[in-house]
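The step that takes the researchers longest sounds almost clerical: writing a folded protein down as plain text. The outcome of that step, for a single protein, is printed below.
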Amino acid sequence: MKIEIPSKAAMILNILEDAGFEAYVVGGCVRDSILGRIPDDWDITTSAAPEQVKALFRRTVDTGLAHGTVTVMMEKEGFEVTTYRVDGEYEDGRHPKEVTFTASLEEDLKRRDFTINAMAYNPSTGIVDLFGGLEDLENKLIRCVGNPLERFTEDALRIMRAVRFSAQLGFQIEENTKNALGVLAPNLRHVSAERIQVELIKLLVSPHPDYLRIAYETGVTKEFLPEWDVCMVTEQNTPHHCYTVGEHILHSLLNIRADKVLRLTMLLHDIGKPAVKKTDENGRDHFKMHGPESEKMAHDILRRLKLDNDTISKVCRLVKWHDYRPLPEMKAVRRAVNKIGEDLFPLYLEVQRADTLAQSDYRREEKTGRLEGVCACWKQIREEKQCVSLKSLAVTGRDLITEGIAPGREIGEILQYLLEIVLEDPEQNQKEKLLAKLQNYRK
């Protein structure tokens, strides 16, 4: 099997080999190339020590000398070149206490996480596959190199990576590897929230976000998202639903495009339902005010996972309004856009569609018909550039001051009053007409 290596990476291999060292591309780039995917990075492993690598190349960056990694710059592109190594004892379930450089490629590959990531390639040698990675790719399996309990004990983040790779590739997790996930899931407490968040996002935006179910079944989500575990066992005895809250969430994830904000919104849009669940005398469940409760919980969860402020703000706004259902009328949709925000309204429509498709068939046609009507109104609002916020109101605070209104809180109140008029009738969004309304406001 021949792998097409980019010219710059191939040049690094050639320079190292010409100097008498072994050198291979390794890990994910080999796996993805075999699968016909385009690798994000081309990592290189070599028998050369870091100092020897630095001596061979004009521009290098010391990215991880203690662990044998030097970034070689080829023009403006960087390639990580790492010396063959053996990891010492892992003290914190995340990092080895020390590493030892070795001349053996086999020893280096032996320390890696999964068989499909433990293959190396060199044009003259071909693929080096010592642990059955090719077979596991063929059988679509995620399997640890060697003893999975040892691999996960060494680095607990590998627990998340196993589920993430499974979701990205659509692979099953080999039985012993899967069993080890459940045994060692508590070790995730040694992993930073930032690292867990990165793996969770990769899983969510993968082709199989519903593989989060595997993380639940093996006790992994219990360690970083226990609120979602409660959703998985919360029944919804209502004609609008046919799944538990958690299963509804998983189905909704499959019905929305692979965008970080949208997938996080679907993950958390009903997270507050267990907290507000009430069952009436007929045995029917109700989840009133689950939107605000879910918004509050989503904010706390996203903060805990160290998401950035912009993502938190967008997700929480979408969660807050996800169950808001305006009539498919121009006036009602303008007010909905004003409430939710012009920036997020298109995403809100996607969220509502995904939410509806993950429910039962009860009144499905009615629900989708209403949503299509809202979408049509929104399209007309955009095409006609109708005013839906103060940003596009024909009168500004400066105009009001010119009219003799003193600067202060009253300016904001008047602008809101005028906006209400325009939301009702967009034809009124003309400066002269709105200023004429000031007399009515004063009265």
Q: What stands out?
A: The first strand starts at residue 23 and ends at 26.
